[in-house]
Amino acid sequence: MRERLEKLGAADIELRPGKSGQFDVTVDGELKYSRRDTGHFPTDAEIEDLAPD
Questions:
Q1: Taking the CB of the first residue and of the last residue of the chain, which one, N or C, has fewer CB atoms within 10 A?
Q2: How many CB atoms lie within 10 A of CB 44?
Q3: Using an 8 Å Cβ cutoff, are 5 and 49 in contact?
């Protein structure tokens, strides 16, 4: 996932596993995705949406 986001132009990527399967993706210091909120890991399309504008 990190490699895909880097190819899409994201510079500072942090993938943080948490308790009970929590999975957060922070791009350029901003929380962009949380499995806790969605209930699933991101799809390819959702990963593309995480890239900076």
A1: C
A2: 9
A3: no
